[in-house]
Design brief:
This protein has one domain: Divalent-metal-dependent TIM barrel enzymes (TIM Barrel, Alpha-Beta Barrel), CATH 3.20.20.150. The protein has 15 helices and 14 strands. The chain has a seven-stranded parallel sheet with strand order 5-7-8-10-12-13-14. α3 packs across α10. It starts with a helix and ends in a 9-residue tail after the last helix. The chain binds manganese (II) ion.
Length: about 425
C-alpha cells in the first residue's frame, strides 16, 4: 500500500484556496512566520516499531486488521505516515521484537521511504523463548551475576544491531524494582545497575548517546530502580558525557511538573530525548495531546527556551519519539494525530514572545506572564503546521487523506484480518 504523490497533489489542490486564506491570516497575525516554518519543516518525530499494531491491556486486545506482519511492513507503514505528514522520518526499533535479520536490506528499504533509524530500544523486562535466565526479579539489578551478565550482553547486542542500521543512540528502560518492602536492598540494586550501565556505556561507539529512561511505577509497585529524573540523572552523571536522561511523559507520579524537570535537565546538559504520549492517571499511553494539550505546550515552551539558551538545534540535538499504544484506534490514525499534536505544541512554543515574557518575569508581573503564554497557546497554528507540511511535499490534512484513500481497507486486503504485529 502506497499513497502516490499525485493523490497528495489532488488532495492539496482541493483544499488550497481555504488553506491559503487561513495561512495568510496567521502570517499577518504572528511575527517571524518564515523562521517558524523553517524550524517546523526540519522537525522529525521517530515512530516506534511497536506502535504499528493494535495496543492491548491485560484485559484484552481488539485488533482491527491489516497489521504489519514483519519489520519490512512496519517500515512501509512508517513510510506511509511520513509521506502524508513529512514529519515522521525516523524509526525507533525495539529488540528483540524487531530484529533486523538482514540489516543492509532493512536500511535500504528505510532509505527508500526517506527514513533513518533513531534510538534503539533494549528489552530486559520480559523473558523471551529459549532465554537462559529469567528477568522475573530484574535484569541489571539482579542478585545473580549471571542474570546481570545476560542483560548487559543483550544491550551490547542491541548496540551492534544499531550500528548496522546507522542508528546513533540506545535507550535503556528497565522495569527493575521491587513489589514488596524488604524484597530488595536499594543500595545494592542501584550499584549493580550502575555497574551494568557502565559496561554497556563502554560498548558505545564514539558518536553514540545512551538514554536512561525513568519510570515511577509499574510493573513494580513498591520501588523502581530508575524511578525518577533524579535517579536517572544520578546514573547519567556517573556514566559520563555520552549518557543522558530520557523523559517519557507518562512515567511520572500524578501532577508532576514535567516542564520544570525538562528545564533543569536541559540546564545541566543532561536531557537526551523524549517519549511522547498522554495520560489521565498513570502510564496510560494515550494519544499525544488528547488529555493535557496545555501541559504539552508548556513542556515545549521550556524545551524551546532551554535549547535556545544553549544554542542547540531543535530538530537534531534531542531524540524525539512517540511511545504510545492504542487500544481502540487505528494505530496509523493515532500516530497521525500524535505527530500533529507535537507539531502544534512546538509551533505554539515558537510563537511565545520571550522578550516580553522575560520583562514580565523581572517585574513580577504574574498576570502578563500568563497572558503571554496563553496568547501563544490559544493561537490556532494549524495553518502554519499545514504550510510546513505542504512545503515539504506532504498532505494538507493527512488524516482526511488517509481516510479518503481507504488505507486501512487496503492494508486489510493485503495482509488479512488476523495479522498481529510484534509488540506488547
Ligand atoms: Mn518510554
Amino acid at each position: 500500500m502506497q499513497i502516490e504523490q499525485q493523490q497528495i497533489a489532488a488532495h492539496n489542490h482541493s483544499l488550497m484556496a481555504a488553506h491559503q486564506r487561513s495561512f495568510d491570516y496567521i502570517s499577518g497575525e504572528v511575527p517571524k512566520t518564515a523562521e517558524a516554518l523553517e524550524k517546523l519543516r526540519a522537525f522529525q518525530v521517530a515512530i516506534p516499531s511497536w506502535a504499528l499494531g493494535t495496543g492491548g491491556t491485560r484485559f484484552g486486545r481488539f485488533p482491527s486488521g491489516g497489521e504489519p506482519r514483519n519489520l519490512e511492513e512496519k517500515i512501509e507503514d512508517i513510510g506511509l505516515l511520513h509521506r502524508l505528514n513529512r514529519s515522521s522520518g525516523a524509526v525507533s526499533l525495539h529488540i528483540p521484537w524487531d530484529i533486523p535479520s538482514d540489516a543492509m536490506h532493512i536500511k535500504t528499504l528505510a532509505a527508500q521511504h526517506g527514513l533513518r533509524f533513531d534510538a534503539m530500544n533494549s528489552n530486559t523486562f520480559q523473558d523471551q523463548p529459549h532465554q537462559t535466565h529469567s528477568y522475573k526479579f530484574g535484569s541489571l539489578q539482579h542478585v545473580d551475576k549471571a542474570v546481570r551478565r545476560q542483560a548487559v550482553d543483550h544491550n551490547i547486542e542491541v548496540i551492534q544491531h544499531g550500528i548496522a542500521l546507522g542508528s546513533d543512540s540506545l535507550t535503556v528502560w528497565l522495569s527493575d524494582g521491587s513489589c514488596f518492602p524488604g524484597q530488595l536492598n536499594f543500595r545494592k540494586a542501584f550499584q549493580y545497575t550502575l555497574e551494568g550501565l557502565q559496561e554497556i556505556y563502554a560498548a558505545l561507539p564514539e558518536h553514540w548517546k545512551m538514554f536512561v529512561e525513568y519510570k515511577a511505577f509499574e510493573p513494580n509497585f513498591y520501588s523502581t530502580t530508575v524511578g525518577d529524573w533524579g535517579q536517572s540523572l544520578l546514573y547519567t552523571s556517573k556514566l559520563g558525557p555520552k549518557a543522558f536522561t530520557l523523559v517519557d511523559l507518562g512515567h511520572h507520579l500524578p501532577n508532576a511538573n514535567i516542564e520544570q524537570i525538562v528545564a533543569l535537565l536541559l540546564m545541566e546538559g543532561k536531557l537526551g530525548g523524549f517519549h511522547f504520549n498522554d495520560s489521565k492517571y498513570g502510564d496510560d499511553d494515550l494519544t499525544v495531546g488528547s488529555i493535557k494539550p496545555y501541559q504539552l505546550f508548556l513542556i515545549f515552551n521550556e524545551l524551546v527556551e532551554g535549547m535556545d539558551a544553549r544554542d542547540m538545534q531543535h530538530a537534531t540535538d534531542l531524540g524525539w519519539m512517540i511511545d504510545a499504544s492504542h487500544n481502540v484506534k487505528d494505530p496509523l490514525e493515532d500516530l497521525l494525530q500524535s505527530v500533529e499534536a507535537i507539531m502544534i505544541a512546538y509551533a505554539q512554543a515558537l510563537l511565545v514572545d520571550r522578550t516580553r515574557l522575560e520583562a514580565a518575569q523581572l517585574q513580577n508581573d504574574v498576570v502578563t506572564a500568563q497572558e503571554i503564554l496563553q496568547q501563544a497557546f490559544r493561537t490556532d497554528v494549524r495553518p502554519l503546521v499545514a504550510e510546513a507540511r505542504l512545503l515539504n511535499g506532504g498532505a494538507l490534512r493527512p488524516l482526511e487523506l488517509y481516510r479518503s484513500a481507504k488505507v486501512r481497507a487496503q492494508l486489510i486486503k493485503e495482509r488479512g484480518t488476523t495479522s498481529i504485529a510484534t509488540g506488547l
